[in-house]
Amino acid sequence: MTAANTDQIADVRGVFSRLIASDRFADILRVSLSLIGVAAFCFLAGRMHAIVALMLGVIACALAEPDDSGWRRLGSLIVTLICFSGTAVIVELLDDYPPLFALGLVTSTFALSMLGAVSARWGQVATGTLILAVYTMIGMEQQAAGGRDLVSTPLYLTCGAVWYGLFSLAWSMVAPMNAVRQALANLFEALAVQVACVARLFEPYRETDHGEARLKLAAANSKSVAALNVARLALLDRLWRRRRRGDSEEKMRLYFAAQDIHERIHSTHYPHEELVEVFFHSDLLFRCGHLLQLQAGALRELAAALRARSPLPKGEMSRAAFLDAREALDLACRNDPPAHLVAALNGLMGNVVALQNAIERPLSPDIAGQILQDPDPATFREAFVRLRNQLTPRSGWFRHAVRLSAGLLLGYLFLKLARLEHGHWIMLTTLLVGQQSFGATRRRLVERVIGTVVGVVAGWAVLQLVPQQPLQLAVIVLAGVGFFAWRRRRYPAATAMITLFVILGFEQILSGYAVIGPRLFDTLIGVAIALAMFYFVLPDWKVRRLADCIAGTLGANARYLRCIAGQYVSGRADDLAYRIARRDAHNAHAAFDVLVRDILGEPRYTATKTDAALHALGLAYNLLSYLSAMGAHRAAGVMGEGDPLRCGVEAVAARLEALAAAYRNGDFASLVPPSADPLVPQIGELRRLIAQQLERVTGVCTALAALGPALRGD
């Protein structure tokens, strides 16, 4: 065997290994085997008229599939199948009675859409149920056109869902921790990206735009927060009513280590632009940035090991890099820089060392007695309270549910009045394109149109070039698999795949050519309805929620600050109360980041607030990073119950709450100016660090108060 052949084999093995390690591999493989089973059954049993409905049932069940394991997944599957079968039967029974159908369509769409406000898991099942309802209409129209019995459509759809559900249930029993491993790998990759973004702040260039860098950091932090939430839910699902042992205990330790790493990454001990100005001619900042880049690489190695199911790397970084950074700091201190900068740099170096220890020993956290908070409602009463709190026009969920209901009703009326042959695709497009924000709706609209055009062209080409039925079945399966492979990350490609899937599916029953034109026309009508609904039916312009979002962020930060201060009295403990406060603060900031990015996608008449919103987002990031630095250095006995420093903490927390109230009611004039006396204790480097962080938080509050009138103005 030649060297070239050996290299080619190695490349193929590398690609295959990366495919297996992908976080989407298990989902893609399940869908592939399920669709292959359906295609084989229909072809061998001579039931090609059922292939579209059976495959649509598979797809709908996969879309509604929660990330559960074991008996919890069985319960979710039973609920999903009950919703699916009941919906399919009701749609069929009411199809001959348009007034009743329209009434049922509006009420069920509104009710199912509102379930997302109760729980993400319930919302996922509700979305899948709505999609299956439209799939039922599509299946009924193709069955009617083929002269088949309409009663079979709900049965085929439900059978397809049952087939995939049982397959998925068996898969979860065989590999219960696969989703947790992939979620943790994604988490450490997100943390690596965030560390790399922090490292760029230490580049000693005066022309560096630190404001833009902080916005990128805010986006990276939002992704880390989302990855933390996904990993927590995956662990909750796997550890539900089970004792932690072996592999599950290891994954819990990794999750708690990731929480600590995230808090340390997010810490800021001093504004970086001033550090660059003072130490511009020193290599200190370069060496600090180099250390962080090495740590980002170690986090990526940890993520790769989790994906490949290989032993965790030791992550031992060159000690010479730490010694060089320490020597650079000592040399810089000989030039008598400001004392507060020296304290900040000492805190920074201590945090970097602790961060490296956490990366090198990710299984070290003690998780005895530690529990995770379940975001799902514990009782139906709690679920009802959550739902009742969202039944107001001020709620984004309520507005979205009303818009979606009106859009589906308008699509149904249009297809009935125009007597369209395949008009139910209008409703499907409206359902999938309509999002909770204008920017997301517009982006999904463009992606849907592009994907549909590409899919139509691809479908026409396949019909021309591949007339053989067995080969077309293979393409149908590949198209269904491609849809699931790209639906979350490359929506245009996913839309193209599902369009190809539909065209070839109808070719097995009637004629694929006959649906090419209607598919494209209905898509254009559906996206037009979705866009019109956002403009004219309870439009939820995110710019109007800006002040409330900032208020929520400030309130969460106040609670986080109080929890941090409490542990400077009692000692460091990552207990549930502290973790909830920390997570709430980060979730609030991530929601603020998403809101600002949604505002940037809204019509230009909101541009007057764009600069102020971006400035506020950068300030909010600074605020949370100053608090994270305090959280990273928690230690017992630093503050006493009657300590003036503890009183200073309470004063800053109260100011945060007062500023939050001002953002809610618009009364910034009543805010009391901060004290002009600096709170700098004379003893204890850690106490000095706390006092400095509190002063920086106060400065951020002053800046946010100055921005308040501009952000609340119409």
Task: Report what the structure shows.
With 714 residues, this protein is an all-alpha fold. It has helices spanning 3-21, 25-45, 51-63, 70-94, 98-114, 120-145, 152-174, 178-200, 210-238, 247-265, 272-278, 284-308, 319-333, 339-360, 380-389, 396-418, 424-433, 438-465, 469-486, 491-507, 513-536, 546-570, 576-600, 610-632, 644-665, 685-712. The protein is globular and about 85 Å long. The N and C termini lie far apart (74 Å).
Compact summary:
The protein contains 26 helices and no strands.
SSE order:
HHHHHHHHHHHHHHHHHHHHHHHHHH
Q: Classify the oligomer.
A: single chain
The coarse silhouette is globular
User: In DSSP terms, counting alpha (H) and pi (I) runs of 4 or more, how many helices?
Assistant: 26
Structural class computed from helices and strand pairing = mainly alpha
Label this structure with key terms.
714 residues; mainly alpha; Methane Monooxygenase Hydroxylase, Chain G, domain 1; 26 helices
Please give the structural blueprint.
Blueprint: H1 3-21, H2 25-45, H3 51-63, H4 70-94, H5 98-114, H6 120-145, H7 152-174, H8 178-200, H9 210-238, H10 247-265, H11 272-278, H12 284-308, H13 319-333, H14 339-360, H15 380-389, H16 396-418, H17 424-433, H18 438-465, H19 469-486, H20 491-507, H21 513-536, H22 546-570, H23 576-600, H24 610-632, H25 644-665, H26 685-712
Helix pairs in contact: 2-3, 2-7, 2-19, 3-6, 3-7, 4-6, 4-7, 5-6, 5-16, 6-17, 8-9, 8-10, 8-12, 9-10, 9-23, 9-24, 10-14, 12-13, 12-14, 13-14, 14-26, 16-17, 16-21, 17-21, 18-20, 18-21, 19-20, 20-21, 22-23, 22-24, 22-25, 23-24, 24-26, 25-26
